Amino acid sequence: MRLQRFGLIFLAVFVAFIGASAYYYTVFPIRILTHIVLTICFAAWLIRRMRRGVGLPKTALNLPLFALVGVWALSILFAQDPRMALESAWLPFINVLIYFFIAAMFRSGAQRLAFETQFMLATLAVIMAAVQFGSFLFGWGITPETVVGWLETGRPPISPQLYLPLGVSTWLAAYVTPLALVSFAWSLTARRKDERWVLRILAALLLLTLVGTFSRGGFLALGVSLLIFGGLQLYAPLRKRFGAAALLLPAGVR
After folding, report:
1. Helices marked H in the chain — which ranges?
2. C-alpha to C-alpha distance for 88 and 78, rounded to whole angstroms
3. How far from 100 is each of 49, 72, 103, 226, CA to CA, in Å?
4. Whether residue 164 has pLDDT greater than 60
5. CA–CA distance from 152 to each of 137, 139, 140, 147, 148 (Å)?
6. Distant-in-sequence, close-in-space partners of 239: CB < 8 Å, separation ≥ 6
7. Is 10 in contact with 121 (CB distance < 8 Å)?
8. Of 195, 167, 200, 172, nearest in space to 184 by CA
9. Helices of type H across 15-81
10. How many CB atoms are located within 10 Å of the residue 59 CB?
11. Which of left, alpha, beta for 204 (phi over 0: left; psi -120 to 50: alpha)?
């Protein structure tokens, strides 16, 4: 069990900070390594499930995803350059397998492990973004533009656009924004008081990281997420009070 946990953490770190980062597109050896590692891991997972006779987990999105994969396969067959089309479709295929992998974890009762892994990744993202901010201040030289720190120049500081560990500020914003909401929502269900506080602190740090990215898309995503979260909180009491009539409420919001 411990080996499986460490394997899951390694795979999650690899997918989140290497395979899903800008370095996958800009550094060719990382791209090749990502293809090899993820192909081997998910092929082994699929083979193991087929040997056990369980196949892919059944979810509400199975048919749409299978149809989407079929469209991708046809586009590869009829593409002008099938090799390039196959390479471009590899990452979407992997994303579909990641969805089924997480669904299988939930079906096996390992949803807590899945969320704990996400929170660990969120903590790593906050730490690396904080290190980059410290490099901006003190000139640690961790990134090329931080060889000279703001404090050494004596000039008024200019707020940086944080991008570590994903390599692009908008990507980092897209990563931390939903995790901030998930961390806060999970804190509402935590039984232990210390867990609630840790998750809320993590949510606050993720929001600070979002501010450090200065991504307009990230701020827009946060606003929409808060509206949806607040709407869901209001919707549950309305559904209990008015029953089926509450189903008409979302239809009036356009």
Report:
1. 2-14, 23-26, 28-52, 62-77, 82-107, 111-138, 150-153, 169-189, 193-213, 216-242
2. 14
3. 12, 18, 5, 27
4. yes
5. 8, 8, 11, 10, 7
6. 246, 247
7. no
8. 200
9. 23-26, 28-52, 62-77
10. 16
11. alpha
Domain parsing of the chain, residue ranges: 110-254
**Residues 26-66 pLDDT 10s:** 899 999 999 999 999 999 999 999 999 888 999 999 999 99
Residues written for the chain: 254
* Contact call for residues 173 and 186 (beta carbons, < 8 A): no
User: What would the two tokens of residue 99 be?
Assistant: 């969805």
Per-residue pLDDT tens over the stretch 181-221: 999 989 988 888 889 999 999 999 999 999 999 999 999 99
Residue with tokens 């701020």: 219
CA distance linking residue 219 with residue 203, whole number of Å:
15
